[in-house]
Amino acid sequence: MADTAIFDKKKSHRAKHAGRKAEKKKKKNQVDQSNLSARQRNPKAFAIQSVVRAERQFRRKEDVIAKKQHIPQVDKTPLEPPPIVVAIVGPPRVGKTTLINNLIKSFIKTNVTNTNGPITIVTSKKRRITLIECNNDINSMIDIAKCADLVLLLCDASFGFEMEIFEFLNICQVHGMPKVMGVLTHLDMIKNAKKLKMTKKTLKHRFWTEVYQGAKLFYLSGIIHGEYLRNEIKNLSRFISVMKFRALSWRTSHAYILADRMEDITSQDNIRKDPKVSRDIVLYGYVRGVPLMKDSMVHVAGVGDIKISDLSYLPDPCPLPSSERKRHLMERERQIYAPFSGVGGIVYDKDAVYIELKGSHSHKTEDEETNEKKTLLKNVVDTKETIDEQMKETGFKLFSGGAVIYPDMVKDDEYLKQNKNNDESSAESDVETDSESENDSGIDHTEKLPWDNNFDSENGEDVDADDKDNMSNKNEQSSDEDDQSSDTNEEFGAKWKEKLSERATMAYFDRQKTSKNIMKLIYGDFEVGNKVKDQNNDPSEESEEEIGGLFKRVTNSQKRKQKLKDQLDTDECSYFYALNKPLIKDWTNDANRQILINNFVTGKRSADEDAEELLKLDDASDGDDEMYGDFEDLETGEKHKAKEAENDNEVGLKRKAEPIKSEILDKKMKLKAKFDAEYDNPDDHRIKGDHSYYENLKAEALKQSELNKSVFENLDEGLRVEVEGFRSGLYVRMLFKGMPSEFVTNFDASYPILIGSLNMAEQNIGFVSCKVKKHRWYKRILKTNDPLIISLGWRRFQTLPIYSKIEDDLKCRYLKYTPEHVTCNMHFYGPVTPQNTGFLALQTVTNSSTEIKQLGFRIAATGSVNEINKSTQIMKKLKLVGTPLKIYKKTAFVKDMFTSTLEVAKFEGARIKTVSGIRGQIKKALNKPEGAFRATFEDKIQMSDIVFCRTWFKVDVTKFYAPVVNLLLPLGNKNAWLGMKTKGQLKRENNIRNEANTDSMYTEIVRQPKVFKPLVIPKQLQKGLPYKLKPKNNRISTTNKKGKHEGRIAVVKSQYEQKVSKVMKMVRTNYNKKKKDQRVAAQERTSKFKRQQEEDEWRKLKRQKELKKKICRQLSKMSSKKKPQM
Amino acid sequence: MPAIIQNDVLIYKGSNFFRQRLLLSTLSGRAVKIEEIRSSHDDPGLREYEVNLIRLLDKITNGTRVELSETGTSMYFQPGILIGGQVTHSCCPQRGIGYYLEVLLALGPFCKEPINAVLQGVTHHDLDVSVDKVKAAALPVLLKFILVDDGLELKVVRRGAPPLGGGEVVFKCPVRRHLRPLQWCKWGLVKRIRGVVYALRVSPTMANRVVESAKGVMLKFLPDVYINTDQCRGSNAGKSPGFGVSLVAETNDKTFYCAEAKSLEPGTGESTLPEDLGRECAMKLLDEIHRGGAVDSSFQWILALWMALGQKDVSECVVGPLSEYTIRFLQHLKEFFGVMFKMEVLREDEDSDDETVISQKVKMTCVGIGYVNISKRTL
C-alpha cells in the first residue's frame, strides 16, 4: 500500500526562489495584504479595460453632474425671516375653514372661533406661518398665488378636481410656482373601499401631471365631531413646518406685504363733513421678498398704484421665541396674531374696540395688565379728537395677547418722563418691560425707536442720539467709556442746550480726528426732517475751520447760503478740484515724497503684504523666544539702516513692523481656515472632479449673501433701515394718504390685501410687447382690440391688446385673431414691467355662474413680456387698387389708386402689379385727374387690367389702461368687477345685428335642364355605314318632317284657294312632265350627236392612217432605190 | 438745493448739475423740472451746450418730452426709453466731448441696443475730462461691473483742441440686463506709469519737451514710465492749435489714476511752456495717487451710480476723499432712486500724524436698488 501511496503522490508545487516572478512576489509580500482594499491588492482588475467605454462612462457621469448644477443664486433670506404664507385654496364647501381651524389648534392648542384674513402663528423655534384662506373669486386666487409660499390645494375627493383647481394651478405657473401640496377631503363619502383606492390613485396621478411627478398629496379621511383626524392634521402640520422653499425671481426682486391689519385714521370731522372724502389709511404687515425702500411706489392689488406717505417699523407682534436653550416651544411662546379674525384679545371695528377674553391664553396670566390698559384705552377713546390722538388710538389697538409692547405708548411715556425726570422714566419703562413677557421684541430703553424719525414734533435730542449712534457704531474699537456715559447723560438731560457749545467743541475734535460725520455732510438731516435740528447741527458741521463761538457760526451759515446761491448756476465739472485750481503740493520735495513713496510697488509694503514681514511672522509663530530674537534683530537692523539713510527710517515708521502675539494667532487661524476649506469640504460629496467654474460661482454667491447679511448687522436700526431699506421680516406700518373712501366702507377682510413694491420705472406706463398663447382649454379665440384683463406683475388691469406675428424681417404683422396652438405677439398699453415676467389674461373676472358655465375655463391666454417701448410698430397689409386710364406701349396712366398728387409723390418708385401679373413701377403724378399717375410696366397692359400696389399700414395701439379695482366694490359684490365690454357683448345685449353684405348672401340656385342639339350624321358618313347603323329613311324623314312642321301653324285653305292650288298643282305637274320629256329628248339627241361625231372622227383617223401608210410606203420605196447608188 | 417733489416730478433750481439731473432722470424714468436757469444772469436761460446735451439724450431715447419756457430759464424733462444704437452727434465746442461722453458711458449698459456713438467736437477741454482719461480710467471701472468685455471700446479718431475742436471719437458700449454687485476695497500699489502727449498744429518738439519734464518727475518714484507722443497731422489735428498730456498710473489691482494738463487756449495772451505743463501733469498725477482709492477721483460719481444701480446686493468700494461733485451726485442719487450710501472714513493709523499726510479714504457701502435694463429686448 505504501508503495502505491508513494506512487500516487503528485509532485508538489515548488515556489520559485529566484527570478523575475519571485522578486515580484517578494516585493508584494513586503506590505501586509490583509488590510488593503481590493483595488490596492489587485490594481489590474480595476484598470481601464476599454478606452471607449471608459470615455462613455466619464461622459455620462459629467452629464449627470451638469444636470444637477443650477446657476447659484444669492440667498436673500434675512436672519429673521418673515412668516411663511400658507394659503388654503379650493372650491367652495370643500373644508378650507375647518382645515385652518384644525391647523391652528394643532399648532398653538387654541380654538379660534372665526377666521378671517391672515392669521400669523408661531409654529416652532425658527418658524412662523401666516395662514390665509382664499375665497372663491378669481381675483383673490390671483393675488394669493402671487404672495403664497406654500399652497394647500383642497379637493373634494368624492367629486374630483374642479375647474377652480386647474385655474389656480395655471395662475401659479404663470406668476412663479409656489410649493403646492394637495389635500383630498371628503374621503369618507366614498364607502366602497376599492372605489376609494381607485379614486385616490386617479386623483393622485392627475395631480402629478399638473404639478410634478411625486408631488405630495394628503388624504384627510373624514370628519369626526367637526374636526379632521388628529394624527392626519399632525402629519400635515409637520410637513408644513419642515417645508423648504425656492426663491422665485419676481419675489426676489420685489418687496411685498400681505396686510394683516388696517386702520382708518382720517379725522372723524372730515368724514362727517363728507363721507366720500379720501381717507388716510394705515396698513400693517410683514415685509417679504427684498427690502422695501422708504419712499417707493407700491401697488395695492385691487386698488391701484399709490405712494407710501409714511413707513415705519414696529416691534414684532408675533415674535419668534428668544434664544432660550430649550428644544420645544414654551406654551406662552405659541403666539397667534390675527387682527382681522379678532384673535389675540382685542377686536376692533371701524369705530369701536372689543376685547375678547375667551380662548386667549396669554390674557389669563396678565389680567391686571389688560385691565389697566383697557382703562387707559377707554380714556383715549373718549377724548379722541385730533389726528395725533387718532394716531395714538391706532397704536393702542396694536398689542396682541399682551405679549407685545405697545409702541406709541412707550414713546409717549419716554417723552413725558424724560422731560420730567430721567430716573423716573427708566423706572417706568422698566416696569413696563417687566410686565410684558420676556421675549418681547427687545425694545431697550437706550435703543432709538423708529417712529422718532417719522414724527415732526421732536427736539434736537434725537439728533444727538443719532450722532452718537453713528459714532459709536463706526468707532467701536476706540469708544472711550467716559464719552459714552456723558453722552447718555446728555441724551436724557433736560438742560442739553447749555452744554451745547461745550459738546460741540468736543464733537468737533472728535470728528476732526475721525471724520465720522461724513454721512451728515452728504445727506444732511437725512433721518429727521425737522428744522430745529438743522439749526442745532449747523455749528458742528460748519466748524471745519473755526471752533469759535456763535458769531463765527452765523457768518459761516451765511457764507454757506451765499455759496449755495453761487453754486446755483456754476458750470458743472466732475474734476476733484472743480473750477478753482488748487495749489498742488510739490511732491518732488523730499518730505512730501516720503508720504507718497509707499504707494508704488517700489516702496515698502504694509505688514500683512510684505514678503519679508510674512516670512518673519512665520518664523515667529514657531516659538515665542525665536520671535523676540528675530524681532530684536530686525530692530537693530533697522536702526542701523537709519543711520545710513534717514529716509528709510521714515518709511519704516509708517508701517506696523512688530508682530504681536494676537496677530500671529490671527494669522494661524486664517491659515487653518484656508486649509480646512481646501481639504475637508463637507458638502462636496455629490459633485466631484474639476468643476471649479461652478464651484467658484457658488462660492461667490455664498460670499455675497454672507456680506449682505453681515455688513449692516451692527448698524443702528434707524440708520440701517435708511441705508438698506426695510428688510424682509420687519413688521411695518404704512400710511397711505388719499385712499378712496370705498376701500374703507366696503372693506372685507376675507379678500387678501397685497401690497407690492414697484421698482424703478415700473410705475410708468408704456407699450408692452409680449408673446402670448391662447390657452388650449379656452374655448374661443381672442380678437384684436377686444378688452382683456391681464394679471402682470402685481397688477391686474384691463387693456386693449393687438395681436401680431413677427415676420422674418422682424416686422410685426397685424393679426385680427389669435392663432390656435401657436404663440403670437401681443402689444398693449400698460405698466412697464421687466422682461420675462409672466402674465395671464382673462376675458372676465365676474363670478356669475352662467358665465363660468359658458366659458368652462376662464384663463384665456398666458405669456411673458418681451420688450417695453414708448411707441409701437405694428403693420397691417394694405392693397391699393387702380385702373388704367390710358395705355401707350409700356407706359400707362393709372387712376383711382390715390386721391391726391401728394399721395402719389409719397409712393413714387413703388412697385405695382396688374392682376395678370405684369409688374411695373409708379413714376410720376399727373396733373389732370387728381391722384392719377404715370407708370411703366414690363409689358403692355390691357384696359381691362386692374393695377394694385401692396403696402403696409401702421396700426396704433389704443391707449387704454384700467386697473381692476375690485377691492373698492361694494360688499358682496366684490367679485363682479365689470370693465370695458367687448363690442360683441354690447351688441348682444342691445340686440344689434350686423347688416349683412348682400353680395355675400346665399340665394337659391335654379338650374336649366341642358338641351342637346340633334345628332346629325353627315351624308358622306351615312354612305359608309352598314345598313344596320344607317339612319332609317322614314325615321329621318319623320324627324325631319316633324321638325319641319312642328310648331308651324296649319293653314286651312278656302274653296277658291283650294281650286287655285289644285289648278296650280296640275299646271305644275304638266310643266314637270313636259320638262321631263324635253330632258329625255334632249339627252337622246345629244347622245346621238355624240355617237355621230365619234364615227366621223373615227373615219377621219382611218383615212389619215391609210394616207400615212401610202406615203411611208412611197418613201421607203424611194429610199431603197437610192441606197445602192450611194 | 434739495428737490421739491410735486406729483412725482422733481423740481430743481439753478443750472448747476444739469447733466446729473438729466442723467438720473433718464435712468429712473422720473420727470424733472428745472427752474430759474441763470435767471439773474446777463444772458439768461440754457446755454448752447446744455441744449446740445438734451439733443443727444433725445437721440438715444424714444419718447422723451422736453418743454422749454420762452425765455429758456425753466425746462421740463420727461424721459423716454433708452434706445441707443447708431448715433452721430456733433458736440457743442463750448464743452469738451467728455461732458457728453460721461453721460453716454453712464447710460450705455442700459440701452436697448449697444451704443455705437460718433461724437465730434473738442476732445480736450479744461472743464471736462478728456477722452484719454475716460478711456484710461473710466472704462476699466465699467468693466468691473459688466465683467465681460464684449465690445466696450473708445477710439480717438481725431483730436481737437478748443476753441474750434474738430476732434472725433467712436464710443461703443455693450448692453446688460443688470450690473453685478462690486466689492472693491483694495487698490494695490502703482506698478506702471504710461502717458500720451499730443501736439496739434504746433511744433513736434513741444511734445518731446513735455515728455521729458513729465518723465523727469515720475522717474523719481518709479522706473516703469513710458510716455508716447501723438503728433497729429492734417485733418487729424483738428481745427485749433494746442498740446497737452495725460498720464495714467496703473496699480497691480487694476486701478487706474489719470491726470492731464493742456496748454492754454490760443488768444488768451499767455503761452504755456511745455516743461511746466509736463511737470504740472506729473504733480497732478502724484496728487491723484496720494488721494488713492479704487477709482480716479473724477469717476467716483460713476462708480457710485453703478453701485446703486446693481442688483439687490451689497456693494462696497473704497475711494479717496469725496469730491464736491460726487457729494452732490450722491444727494441726487438719494432723491431720484431713494438709495443711501453708508459712508465710513477709513484710517490706517489712528495714532499717526496730522491730517495732511494721509488722505482720508471713504468706504462706500450700499444695497443696489435692483435696477434692471427694461429697454433690452428678449426673444
Strand order of the largest sheet of chain B: 1-2-3-6-5
Rg of chain A from C-alpha positions? 54 Å
- Biggest β-sheet of chain B: count, sense, barrel? 5 strands, mixed
Which strand order does the major sheet of chain A show?
6-5-4-1-3-2-14
- Could you say what the CATH architecture of the domain at 84-242 in chain A is? 3-Layer(aba) Sandwich
Low-confidence runs of at least 5 consecutive residues of chain B: 350-356
Task: Give your account of this protein's structure.
The complex is a heterodimer of chains A (1126) and B (379). In chain A, helix 16 runs antiparallel to helix 17. In chain A, strand 20 and strand 21 form a beta hairpin. The N and C termini of chain A lie far apart (164 Å). Chain A has 1126 residues and is of the alpha+beta class. In chain A, the strands form 5 sheets. Chain A has a 7-stranded mixed β-sheet with strand order 6-5-4-1-3-2-14, sandwiched between helices. Chain A has a 6-stranded antiparallel barrel with strand order 9-11-17-13-12-18. Among the domains of chain A are: 159 residues, P-loop containing nucleotide triphosphate hydrolases (Rossmann fold, 3-Layer(aba) Sandwich); 78 residues; 84 residues, no CATH class; 144 residues, Beta Barrel (Elongation Factor Tu (Ef-tu), domain 3); 75 residues, Thrombin, subunit H. The longest helix of chain A has 68 residues. Chain B is an alpha+beta fold. Chain B has 4 domains: 81 residues; 94 residues, RNA 3'-terminal phosphate cyclase domain (UDP-n-acetylglucosamine1-carboxyvinyl-transferase, Chain, Alpha-beta prism), CATH 3.65.10; 102 residues, RNA 3'-terminal phosphate cyclase, insert domain (Dihydrodipicolinate Reductase, domain 2, 2-Layer Sandwich), CATH 3.30.360.20; 85 residues, no CATH class. Chain B is built from 8 helices and 19 strands. In chain B, the strands form 5 sheets. A 5-stranded mixed β-sheet of chain B has the order 1-2-3-6-5, with helices on one face. In chain B, a hairpin with a 6-residue loop joins strand 5 and strand 6. Chain B is globular and about 60 Å long. Chains A and B meet through helix 19, helix 22, helix 27, helix 28 and strand 26 of A and helix 1, helix 6, helix 8, strand 18 and strand 19 of B.
